[in-house]
């Protein structure tokens, strides 16, 4: 048997999406998608996955098709369009969800997760740094669907996130199913300023604690 925080020694490829596993095989499952610019092995993704695994959660990370293509061809390709991203996400859900699970992701990955609430295998959604709008362009809002979200959704948002800071998010109309937890002085990756008195590690620890509690709460619900 593998230790709780072990990363699987092999990378699976269910169709188009490479997959990496952390945590015990009998733990509640969290399917964790990466953001637009970094893949599933980015330090942020790995640290969050490892932290969740330490609490007994089975974390399934995967690469979207465009990210696989970047690695194969050593070229920079932009993210796929939403239908292709959602299809890849759904494929991983079908592969790894033997019962309803929590899905989520960093930035773009979280937004894609929030668009899959109609999937019967999705019990809850967790978004780490939701990209409500491009930096400096609040008019290009991408969170309209959160006003009618019908499943529990946890959003962990940096107070200074340029994709949607605390003051902006507090003024938004969100479903009662959406809970927003603000990360102290955090930017889009939850990094605080030195003068704030907080540290990046402190914030990541808070994020893992909040996320773990949410995933376990979904697992205990009937």
Automatic annotation (TrEMBL):
Q: What is this protein called?
A: Alpha/beta family hydrolase
Alphabetical UniProt keywords: Hydrolase
Q: Does the keyword Hydrolase apply?
A: yes
InterPro entries, A to Z? AB_hydrolase_fold, KANL3/Tex30_Abhydrolase, NSL3/Tex30
Q: Which Pfam families match?
A: Abhydrolase_11
| Residue ranges of every copy of the KANL3/Tex30 alpha/beta hydrolase-like domain listed in the record | 29-215
A GO MF label = hydrolase activity
Native source organism of the sequence: Vibrio rhizosphaerae
């Amino acid at each position: 048997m593998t230790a709780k925080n072990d990363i699987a020694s092999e990378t699976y490829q269910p169709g188009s999406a490479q997959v990496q596993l952390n945590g015990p095989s009998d733990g509640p499952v969290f399917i964790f998608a990466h953001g637009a610019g970094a893949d599933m092995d980015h330090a942020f993704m790995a640290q969050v996955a490892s932290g969740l695994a330490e609490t007994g959660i089975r974390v399934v990370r995967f690469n979207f098709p465009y990210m696989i293509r970047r690695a194969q061809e050593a070229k920079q390709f932009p993210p796929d369009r939403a239908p292709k991203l959602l299809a890849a996400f759904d494929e991983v859900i079908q592969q790894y969800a033997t019962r309803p699970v929590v899905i989520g992701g960093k930035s773009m990955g979280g937004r894609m997760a929030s668009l899959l609430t109609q999937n019967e295998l999705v019990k809850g959604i967790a978004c780490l740094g939701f990209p409500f709008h491009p930096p400096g362009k609040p008019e290009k809002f991408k969170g309209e669907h959160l006003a009618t979200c019908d499943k529990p959704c946890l959003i962990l948002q940096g107070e200074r996130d340029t994709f949607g800071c605390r003051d902006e998010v507090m003024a938004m109309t969100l479903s009662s199913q959406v809970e927003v937890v603000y990360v102290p002085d955090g930017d889009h990756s939850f990094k605080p300023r030195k003068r704030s008195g907080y540290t990046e590690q402190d914030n990541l620890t808070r994020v893992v604690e909040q996320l773990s509690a949410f995933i376990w709460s979904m697992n205990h619900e009937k």
